Amino acid sequence: MAYRFGLALILIGLISLMVFVVTYLNHEGDVLTLLLGASLCALGLMVRRRIAHRNRIDTGRFRIFRRFSERFPDEE
Question: What sign does the CA torsion over 13, 19, 20, 25 have?
């Protein structure tokens, strides 16, 4: 659910950025539209990244190195 919310924020942000570009080409660009679009895109990316980080599947790659580093944590 949160993943879709992040996608929706990104989509709304991109639409807002496109509105800014069109109005800027007509010499009527509003900086608040630019800031709104950029902040919505950034917020959506942060939400998606947080959800993806939580749902990461352990692939088992480099497990020997992980076990070795867990045995000797104070050798750095």
Answer: positive
Let me know if residue 68 belongs to a domain: no
- Three-class secondary structure of residue 75 per DSSP: coil
Tens digits of pLDDT across the chain (76 residues): 888 999 999 999 999 999 999 999 999 989 999 999 999 999 999 999 888 777 766 666 777 776 776 666 655 4
Our count of domains for the chain comes to: 1
- Indicate the length of the chain as a whole number: 76
Q: What is the pTM of this model?
A: 0.69
